[in-house]
Amino acid sequence: MRTPSPSWPSSNFSSCASCNPSSSGSPAGGRCALRLEIRSKRFAGREVIRGLSLAAAPGEFLALVGPSGCGKTTALTIAAGLDRDFDGTLDFGGPEPVLGCVFQTPRLLPWRTVRQNVALVLPKARRSDGTAERWLAAMGLEAVADEFPGRLSGGMARRVALARAFAVEPGLLLMDEPFVSLDEPTAQRMRALLTTMLERSPATVLFVTHNLREAIQLADRILVMAPGPTRVAAEVPLKTPRALRDDALVERVRAELLARPDPAFRLLA
Ligand SMILES: Nc1ncnc2c1ncn2[C@@H]1O[C@H](COP(=O)(O)OP(=O)(O)OP(=O)(O)O)[C@@H](O)[C@H]1O
Questions:
Q1: Which residues fall within 8 angstroms of residue 153, CB to CB, at 6 or more apart?
Q2: How far apart are CA 193 and CA 217, in angstroms?
Q3: Contact call for residues 89 and 35 (beta carbons, < 8 A)
Q4: Which of 49, 111, 172, 210 is the most core-located residue (most Cβ within 10 A)?
Q5: ipTM exceeds 0.90, yes or no
Q6: In whole angstroms, what is the distance from residue 260 CA to residue 247 CA?
Q7: Distance in Å, CA 67 to ligand 1 centroid
Q8: Which residue ranges does the record annotate as region Disordered (predicted)?
């Protein structure tokens, strides 16, 4: 988390508990509402988002889907409070929540052990109270707690990143393509693990993906983004309980969505 990139300015990292050990936020486990209104977002004068509006109820799992470059990461970055340079409003319906963040790459500190990577996001008083170990155990990572990240497989490193995000007991979990570039069986195991973790530690979730199947499998509601400049073009509520969404149902819903006349859906194919 200490490696800044152009779209994740280091100066604003204190907003994300998973990125910053000293962040406190609201009481742990306090699921929050999320209301984000981006009237306009520009990079160097170029407007990339216009009139994007989204709202999540406490505990709701929202998936943002859309074609590459349409502004999903930008919207998530704004929701995380990491980019305040936009015209609009961000509101949690109460105090700022504890944030958990999971990115496209695990972003572990290579010079710290797995255990330390998780413990470091916790308030000082909780760094040696067994919390890190409990979350590592929940992810099946006890055996590598004292290893350095360089010794882990890609899937294990992602599990550490998930453990780190859940260890803070986030009220709001922000995930940016967290399972991209994993082989499909590993990605499926990670999605199942995410579902289990959310049952254990419920949070409001904003999940960015370009993978429509993944969104159908996980989300309570899918927001389909349309480019140029980006806005939410359509919303798809998913009523079937997550546990009952097998491959056949996911494929059926996907086919139905891709057949819709709205061009925003065709861009997802
Ligand atoms: N720091 C930046 N400076 C200038 N332009 C940027 C910056 N960050 C993003 N952009 C531009 O804003 C647009 C939206 O980018 P963003 O990364 O949010 O899209 P995305 O939908 O998440 O893409 P992908 O699915 O490929 O990750 C793109 O045109 C991108 O080039």
A1: none
A2: 13
A3: yes
A4: 172
A5: yes
A6: 20
A7: 11
A8: 1-29
By C-alpha distance, which of 201, 211, 214, 204 is closest to 245? 214
**Phi first, then psi: what are they for 170, rounded to 5°?**
-70, 145
Using CB distances shorter than 6 Å, the residues near ligand 1 are 6-7, 43-44, 48, 66, 68-74, 210
| Atom number, ligand 1, closest to the C-alpha of residue 74 | 18
pLDDT in tens, 50-75: 999 999 999 999 999 998 888 899 99
Edge-to-edge strand ranges of the sheet holding 172-176: 99-102, 172-176, 204-209, 61-65, 221-226, 231-237
For the chain, what are the domain ranges? 14-266
